[in-house]
Amino acid sequence: MTDAATVTSSLFEHVASANEAVRHFRGRLGFETDVSDVWAELQRVESGEADRDDLGFVLIDTRNDASWAQGRVPGATHLPTRRIRDEAAATVAPGTPVVVYCWGPGCNGATRAALEFASLGHPVKEMIGGFEYWVREGFPVESASGRTQAVADPLTNVSTAALPDGGAPNGPISCAC
């Protein structure tokens, strides 16, 4: 085993102290959540453990109308980023915590939406991975045609069918990180 003081990897030429790293990563968790964590919270509503009003946050899809029509996270509220400033007060009660998502990691729409909600005084988190990773992890998608669910992408999530014992018949496994 290599002594930490003798690490020579160029990756660690400039590295934060442990205290700086704690502040940084704790800070990121204050601003971000992921699709698996949102799925777990929404499951409380699906299971009857909580009412949507008691969930503790509103999930906002910030994509445009065409993207919304193609499919969305079940239970999400549609409010495109460009309309947040003018319509948020009529859509989300003041001070209500908000989780926002846009298309995916290659898009900063959710970041801009989070900034708008924060500017309006809402506690806000960005759902990293966005709708792309919601679909890739095999979570349900809702549209005017009803609910669908893709098979989980094995690069992002493990299907229960891939488990050695065949797994439970209840779909994808959310991240247990």
Automatic annotation (TrEMBL):
<protein>
    <submittedName>
        <fullName>Rhodanese-like domain-containing protein</fullName>
    </submittedName>
</protein>
<dbReference type="InterPro" id="IPR036873">
    <property type="entry name" value="Rhodanese-like_dom_sf"/>
</dbReference>
<dbReference type="Pfam" id="PF00581">
    <property type="entry name" value="Rhodanese"/>
</dbReference>
<dbReference type="InterPro" id="IPR050229">
    <property type="entry name" value="GlpE_sulfurtransferase"/>
</dbReference>
<dbReference type="InterPro" id="IPR001763">
    <property type="entry name" value="Rhodanese-like_dom"/>
</dbReference>
<feature type="domain" description="Rhodanese">
    <location>
        <begin position="56"/>
        <end position="143"/>
    </location>
</feature>
